[in-house]
Specification:
5 strands; Pyruvate Kinase, Chain: A, domain 1
């Protein structure tokens, strides 16, 4: 019975491995489902943020009609650049953070870095980069507006201290069929030429001085653009995670198929061995005839 016992133990071991892989597959499917839900949520909110930003841009264009032609004027000297880098918060997203850092490589050594995403902070530290300010990416899109508030507050503090006067955001956008790609957007100083300037007779009625109104609208516009960049990064990270989980699911299916084939073969060998042993036992027990 030694051979049969060995095959039984082997069959039990294979069964345990099959169950372990199946449980891993359930975890992978759950992670993929969570990532998909977050992507859909972010996409829906991007529509709202884009509409909000367009409304603020139109308001800035109308507010500019309150100033004489050519104003607000004056160009600021080229000072230190700040980069807001939207990296990955969680794992299983491939080289998401590394691509963002690579995209900004030319300015990383001289710019003040505002790093968003725990995984991105770790990836930057591996390169010897020190962030001037860092925070985690929210787990849900409902936390994006508060994140934008915190980033803006940190940026304004640095601007007031004379540390920076230019600001770019670097974040990822997901292209269907083409994966994640980093993008760079200038946030400050805001170029008035970007906004459609209304004619003087269309100037709005206001209760604020033109400078105060324009400053307030510019702050709202910056907040909207930070939300837009964060939402794109949030969606792209979860798209990357979905892709990674899909690859893992396919690998798990292949592994399960292989293990089940081995399980069937070992079970058949065990049955065959038992039949042979029973037949041999039956032959040995038959009485000899003279």
């Amino acid at each position: 019975m030694g051979a049969a016992e060995n095959m039984t133990e082997r069959l039990a071991d294979i069964g345990a491995r099959v169950e372990g892989v199946r449980q891993l597959g359930a975890v992978v499917n759950a992670m993929r489902g969570i990532a998909a839900a977050r992507v859909q949520q972010a996409r829906g909110q991007l529509v709202a943020v884009d509409g909000y930003a367009a409304t603020i841009a139109a308001a800035i264009g109308r507010a500019l009609a309150l100033f004489p032609a050519g104003a607000p004027a004056g160009t600021r000297r080229a000072g230190r650049l700040a980069l807001v880098l939207f990296c990955a918060e969680q794992g299983f997203a491939g080289a998401f953070s590394e691509r963002v850092l690579d995209f900004a490589a030319g300015d990383l050594s001289t710019a003040k870095l505002f790093l968003i995403g725990t995984r991105g902070v770790a990836a930057a530290a591996e390169r010897g980069l020190v962030a001037g300010w860092q925070t985690a990416m929210p787990a849900h899109t409902s936390g994006i507006p508060r994140l934008a508030d915190r980033i803006a507050a940190a940026l304004y503090a640095s601007i007031a201290a004379g540390e920076i006067d230019r600001l770019d955001a670097i974040f990822s956008r997901w292209r269907p069929g083409d994966g994640s790609h980093a993008r760079r957007a200038r946030l400050l100083p805001v170029d008035p030429a970007l906004f459609p300037r209304e004619t003087a007779h269309d100037a709005p009625l206001t209760n604020l001085p033109p400078d105060a109104l324009l400053n307030g609208l510019t702050a709202d516009f910056l907040h909207a653009r930070l939300c837009d960049a964060a939402l794109h990064a949030f969606a792209a990270e979860n798209e990357a995670r979905m892709q990674a989980m899909e690859s893992a699911r396919e690998q798990i299916e292949r592994q399960l198929s292989t293990l089940r084939a081995v399980q069937r073969r070992v079970r058949q060998e065990e049955i065959t061995s038992e039949i042979i042993e029973l037949a041999a036992g039956e032959s040995a027990s038959e009485p000899e005839h003279a």
